[in-house]
Amino acid sequence: MISSAHIAAGQALGGAELFYVRLVNALQERREPVLAITSPGGLISRRLRPDVAQEHVPMRGIIDLPSRWRIEAIVRHNRPDIVQTYMGRATRLTHLDPGRHSLHVARLGGYYDVKGYRHAHAWVGNTRGICDHLIRSGLPASRIAHIGNFVDTPAANSRDVIATLRRQLDISDDALVLMAVGRFHPVKGFADLLAAFSLVGGAIRGRPLNLVIVGDGPLQETLHSYARQLGIDRRVRWAGWQLDPHSYYELADLLVCPSHHETLGNVILEAWAHCRAVLATQTVGAMELAADDSPSWTVPAQDPQALSDGIRRLLEDDALRGDLAASGRQKVDDHYSQQQIVGAYLDFYQRLTG
Questions:
Q1: Angle at 37 between CA 118 and CA 66, to 5 degrees
Q2: How far apart are the first and last CA of the chain?
Q3: C-alpha angle 306/291/342, rounded to 5°?
């Protein structure tokens, strides 16, 4: 067995942090020796299984020398075979002598400047595009692995649970439901989604249409104001940030991902895991996931009219939505399952240490 320590900084729970939690928990479930090193008092540590060994380091910034020394001390004491870091701060604070026992693997979920990552001994990119970026930046291809993310595939809720959620959101039984999930940041394209929703109109084939948005962020008041300006505020449901959005995916007839840029697109994988059709903008992440069926479910980014046309087309075609949902679920089962992704990490660790 290969022991590993996993280091992530920060207090919030974004896509990278949630994947960290899923991977560490999955390794623990498989009885792989694993240690989690996180910031004290953060949401990450609370989501880890109670039997996961944990250490806490402040990691207040990339030049936090006491945290850097503390990480080095923890690694020396525990002697894991692999030390895997997530995102820039944790990676920059982790400096390991290549002649010592532990190997440093830096995981990247974006097209970052490799200057802050070169000191690692190996690298994981969660898309092929990121791996190509690392190779073009001069890192050795033999020590780079493309390993995607996996998402949870929970059991379906009962009809009563979904009916209760509809009532809580004041959505009629016959209404169609669009859903979007994410942080209210300009790059996520929520303003484009609101504009597109206003263009679609209030009904599809005689059925009322509601938009449910799960998330929060710095643009919250701006987006609320824009919805009122467009005259759609009575048809938009702001669900806020949800620790577990499982029921919301089941509520949706269509998941919309309107981002201007998306490196991968975890919400796409999550929707597919719930067997829900997706309409996404043509970001690098969506197009890598799309393969040959991209014309069916992607539209140009930053184009509300194209987004509106795509929403109407998919909501009017139940058969196409069903085919896309089934195809997406099959992609998750074939390429983004927990078993496959955890196995790929363990194989990479074995290759590095063998």
A1: 70
A2: 11
A3: 120
pLDDT digits (tens, 9 = 90+) for 237-251: 999 999 889 999 999
Nearest-angstrom CA–CA distance, 84 and 104: 6
Give start and end residues of each alpha helix (H) in the chain: 15-29, 43-47, 65-78, 87-93, 128-136, 159-168, 190-200, 220-230, 246-251, 266-273, 284-290, 294-297, 304-316, 318-335, 338-353
Q: Please, are residues 168 and 242 in contact by the beta-carbon 8 Å criterion?
A: no
Using a cut of 0.85, tell me whether the model's pTM lies above it.
Answer: yes
- Residue 8: name the closest of 36, 35, 49, 29 by CA: 36
- Residue type at 41? G
Paired tokens of 27? 């390794």
Query: Domains in the chain, ordered, with CATH?
Result: 4-150+337-353 (3.40.50.2000), 159-335 (3.40.50.2000)
Q: What is the DSSP string of 164-187?
A: HHHHHTT--TT-EEEEEES---GG
CA-only gyration radius of the chain, Å: 21
CB–CB of 169/212 below 8 Å?
yes
Q: DSSP 3-state assignment of 25?
A: helix
Tokens of 19: 């994947």
- Cα 8 to Cα 17: distance, rounded to the nearest angstrom: 7
Contact 275, 329 (CB under 8 A): yes
Report yes or no: 185 and 300 within 8 Å, Cβ to Cβ: no
**Strand, helix or coil at 223?**
helix
pLDDT of 172-203, one tens digit each? 999 999 999 999 999 999 999 999 999 999 99
